[in-house]
Amino acid sequence: MTAAATANGATPLPGRIDTLTPDQEVALKKTWVRILKAFEQKGEPWTPPAKVAEPAKEKKSRWGFGGGKKESENKDLFMGATKNPDWLALPVEQALPLIPGEELAGTFWNMVAGDNADAVVLRFLRARKWDLDAAFNMLMNCLRWRIVSRVDDITALGEHGVKNELNNLKPGMGDSFIENLHSNKSVLGGPDKDGRPISYINVRFHKKEDQDHEVIKVMTLYFMESSRMIVHQPVESSCIVFNMEGFTLANMDFDFVKFLLHCFEAYYPETLGSCLIHKAPWVFSTVWNMITPLLDPVVASKIHFTKNLDELTNYVDKAILPSFIVGKEDIKKNTELPPLPPAGSLASRQSPEFKQYEAVCRNYLAETAEFAKSDIPAHDPKRKEQALAVRHSTIKIEPIIRGRTYFHEIGLADVENDRLILKFFGHIEPKDISDCV
């Protein structure tokens, strides 16, 4: 599948695989040369220190606007627990040589998640307006953050495995994660009019003091990585709808807002297709004035306010919208938990199937080294065949690299006979997206 026609029939966007200018082709290849070099580096060995008791945290103000310790000083228990903290704390130019290249490559392919790797690299180039140094540093900063934050572990463990890991670190923390995950704070849906997945955030169900901030961070990453499950060219981004009905200042969590914005700006560039703030009450204007200075201009350009259903249907067909948005029924905070799917395992990365997948990825990188020296364009059929081989291999080992999720169970997408079938919860006819690179 090419970008000859996007999901909504629009003209293909510039700076994508099928629409690159000659200068952009050169930029892509030069960036690949630097990436390949980073993947080959040895790095430096590091042994985790013995665990020490966590000091008591100073309580923050209600909204997280100040008071107490700064966010950067709060110690997470899961994120950052298994890797050298210098990998993330040092400036990227100093930290990068410390990280083994195989770890950079491993998290890179988990980030690609079966997408076309050229498309992923291009997202960073577009985000930095084709400044090669800035784009490369942004990509490496993203990879080191993924490693230290254990993003790949979150995906591989699945919700049940994450629950177990968090409970082992702090009794009740994993239970809190599951309760938040199934509370209706966030509900996946879609597609929007551009064929993108939608995450509905029901803001009224959130109060920052009800759970550890790390629980919300892990849940956010879990949702973001789960939405990557259905990425397929030319659909590269997602839509967020903040349902502000019932919002009061008690629901404001400034730390969460900062974390989410930073994720989209620094770690998931060009993946926010649109952000719709629906039915915001007048009291939200005070909060919005505090948020606006934090917004990256690119992110800000994708934020739209919708006052009513008619305005929202400019972005999402009414038939696709959930009943709690169209007013057919109210949505309540869910307190009944469904049976959890089986827990994923980190040990499965040692399986023969995973080793075969790694071999396919290494072959792609070897072919990329030749591609970077050639005049072959990124849209060349042979180049796309190379990407397709990785996609097929990724789909085949989906049960290994992605723990079973509730989203599989309720019909977002699933792997059937080594084919990735997009279902969108019955909102569309099942669609085989296995060959969409």
TrEMBL record:
SUPFAM superfamilies: CRAL/TRIO domain, CRAL/TRIO N-terminal domain. PANTHER family: PHOSPHATIDYLINOSITOL TRANSFER PROTEIN CSR1, PHOSPHATIDYLINOSITOL TRANSFER PROTEIN CSR1-RELATED. Residues 187-333 form the CRAL-TRIO domain. It comes from Hesseltinella vesiculosa. Signal peptide: none annotated. This is CRAL/TRIO domain-containing protein. Residues 46-74 are annotated as: Disordered.
